Amino acid sequence: MSFFNTFDAAIDFDKVSDLHRHPLTGINVLVIGAGPVGLYTALECWRKGHHVVGVLERTPAPSAAGDSFTVLASHIQRSWPRLFQALKKVTFEMNLSFYKLNGELVKDAEPFSLENIAQGRANDDGEVKKTEIIRVNRAVLAALFLGQARELGIEISYGKRVVDYFEDDIQAGVVLEDGSRASADVVVAADGIGTKSHRLINGHDVRAMPSKHSIFRASYANDPVISDPELNDRFLKCKEGSSEFQLWTGKGLSIAIASFPKEIQWYMTHEDTVGISKESWHNFVTPEQVIDFLSAYPEVPDIFKKLVKTAPPESIIDWQILWRDPQPKWHSTRVVQAGDSAHTFVPSSGSGVNQGLEDAVSIATCLQIGGNVKNGMWAKVHNKLRFERISCCQLMGFINQSHYLKAEWGANALDDPKNYRPEYGWWVMRHNPERYAFVNYGNALRNIIDGTPFQNTNIPSGYVHKPWTLQVIYDTLAEGKKLKFDGDWS
């Protein structure tokens, strides 16, 4: 808790008097989960005029677990100006460099520029301008959102483990482990992959399918790297206010090394041969276990193994990559899922947290527009506006994972920097979920009511959504085929 309290004290958050809050709706909202998605949902619901009765979190205190992710911050910049400025002070511009698995440089570091992706195209607001993209530590983002929520007077309660969800004609709520209950007009389930809301919404839990891949994930202070001249020279190349993301690629193994001014992170995506992988932030392994695993890859240089040895106890986790079929329905009448509760992503998608933050904006906006909680139409419209986009972002993750680990890597392919780059389309980057909800709510509602044709435009141009399953994706990858889909995914 001390990290979060100290962090709060140093930040100038948006004050109630500084913000444009929409007219009060009289709708009470309870949020389950105090991760970045749950907290941002609470912030957006407050901004849209809803009354956030509280946020319930199962952990006993704010958690610093996790490493980092890439955030598209344009919506935060528009709606939470001081919060955005605070975010900018603790995040870093990204520079990408590419290497073969043996450590041989393919292309030196260059800024990860959205201008190269945009190619002069306008965003959803009709503007041709820079889209904010930043790399941020998960705990830092959660601390910022937590501090902003406290500034607005939103109550966050810890040690509240939810074991069930319920709803009736007048309210929705949750049952806690101690038998007590909490309720509101609307409940947002943002409590992650283990959410108990599936039984209420879909009548069953969501089955996970092993992907046969795992990822070692490590994050810790870079002091031991700085103190070693060889490691410092090799891995800590970032300038003040920036980060470097090295991507090392070879057959069956992908290594990423992220260096920040005060922190080092590294990741290894690999076939799940160790047998101890779990989908948990607490599944710790030792540096010795990682180095033992690397014995199967003699081309990996000693300098990387030396870096692995600098990891302190309980800083490396072995994360099992599980796949889940897309769930077309994320809501009942009064309960709606957000983030990983509704849709999970493989780490290579680069979209998980961003789509969760978009969920937060869309839920708050659709609830504001729809108003009538009793018929649940606001939730149906939100689902209609978001599902196809999420499905496409999930497919993008599989495209990237198959790209990094593809079996046909050869000398020629590894010499071309273009073969290292992840897929990030402008259709992902340009989106404004708040504007999209305002513009499309009526047409989506009409489609739900009487079947009037409606086509989402927040997906790749020219792509027509088709239902898919993980088994089809897995079979395609197992056959060594490249994942390819109609439309413009650039």
Automatic annotation (TrEMBL):
Required co-factors: FAD
Keyword Oxidoreductase: yes
Pfam families for this protein: FAD_binding_3
Keyword presence, Flavoprotein: yes
Signal peptide: none
GO molecular function: FAD binding; monooxygenase activity
Every FAD-binding domain range: 28-367
Chain coiled-coil ranges: none
Swiss-Prot/TrEMBL keywords: FAD, Flavoprotein, Monooxygenase, Oxidoreductase
UniProt xrefs under Gene3D superfamilies: FAD/NAD(P)-binding domain
Family: Belongs to the paxM FAD-dependent monooxygenase family.
Protein name from the UniProt record: Putative monooxygenase
